[in-house]
Amino acid sequence: MVMNSSTTFVDAMRRTVRLGHIRDAIGQVLVAFCFATFGSIYLAFASSLKGYLTALAAMAGGIAWIVFAIRGVIKPDDPFNTQIGAYGPPEVIAREVEQEFAGQSFRPRRIYVGRQWLCYAWKKELIACRIDTIVWAYREQARRRNSKGIPLRTSNRMVAWRRDGHGVVLPLRKVRDVQLALEALRRAAPWVFVGYTDALKESWNNDREDLVALSDDARGRGGLEDGGGLSSSIGALLKNPGIHRCREED
Question: Splitting the chain (250 residues) into consecutive groups of 10 residues, what average pLDDT does each group show?
């Protein structure tokens, strides 16, 4: 789905997330309606106080669920403003993002890497992150299994960790999409550690401040590589970078 060219980039991201919330609310309303309907049918055949109370509880729960789902669509929080609240006034940041991606049509489930901003939106998730806050990024392959261990599907995503210790997970359709996003990030921010290694994981978990300092120092020099290539400390962290594989259960 490509947003209309008359729609601004930021508004297109907002619309994507709003449609995601609407789809989710429709699903919740249908389930809640079935729940309330079951309660009304059960009430007609109840013959004891416990049965009456169970039926009334099901009806009340279903109705409350419907109201909650609808209110979430009618009065949603602005997902863009929530994301960029720490960076400055929303209207100022929105102008920056619009200028960054001027002339580009927004597509859901695609990572946009500019000079200063990384943006993404799909389903109910919107990410707007300043590139200078990113320290480490890599491709992650998640294999989803059911509770019996039967493989269901494999998904590819880009994971980016920020200097504050928080990470963002950006699901994409294809391996190639992740690779292109990482290459774009490497060009825009040559000080970012790109690729997964056990050494980087250990450093991030145990010595994050040191890793951030290395990234900051590389930024001051224009990138991780200097005239002689990678330093010994950075080279050790980036030796044979690959992808991170993990398993998830439904």
Answer: 64 93 94 93 88 92 93 83 90 94 93 96 94 96 75 87 94 93 95 95 94 92 72 81 79
What's the pLDDT at 126? 95
Where would I find the beta strands (DSSP E) of the chain?
A: 112-113, 117-122, 125-130, 134-145, 151-162, 167-172, 193-194, 225-226, 229-230, 244-249
Do residues 208 and 164 touch, judged by C-beta distance below 8 A?
A: no
d(Cα 48, Cα 181) in Å, to the nearest integer? 62
Percentages (nearest 5) of helix, strand, coil residues in the chain = 50, 25, 25
pLDDT at 5: 46
**8 A C-beta contact, residue 84 and residue 130:** no
Distance CA 68, CA 11 (A): 25
Rounded to two decimals, the pTM is 0.83
Q: What are phi and psi of 55, to 5 degrees?
A: -65, -45
Name the 3-class secondary structure at 169. strand
The first and second tokens of residue 146, run together, are 């059911």
What pLDDT does residue 234 have?
81
CB 25 within 8 A of CB 72: yes
Q: Write the burial class of residue 10 (CB in 10 Å: 0-12 exposed, 13-18 middle, 19+ buried).
A: buried
Q: What is the CATH number of domain 109-249?
A: 2.30.29
Q: What is the DSSP string of 73-114?
A: HHS---HHHHHHTTTS-HHHHHHHHHHHTTTPPP-TT--EE-
